[in-house]
Write a structure and sequence with these properties.
Number of strands: 13
Shape: elongated
Order of helices and strands: HEEEHEHEEEHEHEHEHEEHHE
Number of helices: 9
CATH architecture of the largest domain: 3-Layer(aba) Sandwich
Largest sheet: 11 strands, mixed
CATH class of the largest domain: Alpha Beta
CATH topology of the largest domain: D-Maltodextrin-Binding Protein, domain 2
Radius of gyration: 19 Å
Number of domains: 2
Strand content: 25-35%
Structural class: alpha/beta
Helix content: 25-40%
Length: 251
């Protein structure tokens, strides 16, 4: 999709800030199965997130190199090492200390799964004394729980598969996760159910490393206009349909 009628031409200085040397390096979170939903014939990441990076590179008139990371935490930590020029990741306050974010282009519901026979029936009931919540640490929804859970205990693991195993093997009271993933998890747990509603939505955005200079501010302003145009033009909705993704919506 082309945005020539909606976005101003890119200056050489802005192009160089976003894509030094003529190649845009885009950090991609491989663990988000809604945004990276397939592989290319050569084994690279494919999905909504890589396609967004491609659309940005195409409009800049530069090459694209996807820089994959196994988790959002590793991607976020790499900002300080300047391993990528833009990062496609959930926008969270902790990450915003080193990464400047555009508005979200897509959002994902996060909720809880509870085991068979659980007395928990609503989202608000989960944050209570004695309740233990399994959660994948340093995910966007995990960081939200770090800030907002007041009474329950968070039991953190490194991957979603490990979190599911902890929930099952340690008889935990709730499993926090993306609704789309929990729909798969609940099929493995006899009698388990997913609570109605959500405790937050993960806001998927485009980030750039904070450098504190005018060119970074200009680059973020341009990326913000790109994201807003991508939403209003229907590009994001088109990419979601293209990849057949359930559980992801335009922000």
């Amino acid at each position: 999709m082309r945005f020539e009628d909606d976005l101003e031409p890119v200056s050489p200085a802005l192009r160089e800030r976003l894509a030094p040397g003529g190649t845009l390096r885009a950090g991609i979170n491989l663990s988000n199965f809604l945004l990276v939903s397939a592989k290319t014939p050569d084994g690279g990441p494919a999905g909504v997130s890589p396609d967004m990076a491609r659309a940005i590179a195409d409009h800049l008139g530069v090459g694209l190199r996807l820089v994959p990371y196994a988790s959002p935490a590793i991607l976020a930590d790499a900002a300080a090492r300047h391993e990528w020029d833009i990062g496609l990741i959930g926008a969270e306050p902790q990450r915003a200390e080193t990464i400047a974010f555009t508005p979200a282009y897509a959002e994902i519901e996060a909720t809880y799964l509870v085991p068979a026979g659980s007395p928990l029936n609503g989202i608000a009931e989960v944050d209570a004394p004695g309740v233990r919540i399994a959660v994948t640490g340093k995910t966007a929804y995990g960081l939200w729980l770090d800030r907002n859970i007041r009474h329950a205990e968070l039991v953190r693991t490194a991957t979603m598969d490990e979190t599911l195993a902890d929930f099952r093997d340690k008889d935990l009271d709730a499993l926090a996760g993306l609704r789309a993933r929990l729909i798969t998890d609940v099929e493995q747990l006899t009698g388990a159910r997913i609570l109605d509603g959500r405790f937050m939505t993960v806001q998927q955005a485009i980030g750039i490393a904070r450098n504190g200079d005018a060119q970074t501010d200009a680059a973020l302003a341009w990326l913000t206009r790109f994201v807003e145009t991508a939403k209003t033009s229907g590009l994001i909705a088109e990419l979601i349909r293209k990849h057949g993704i359930e559980g992801l919506s335009v922000a």
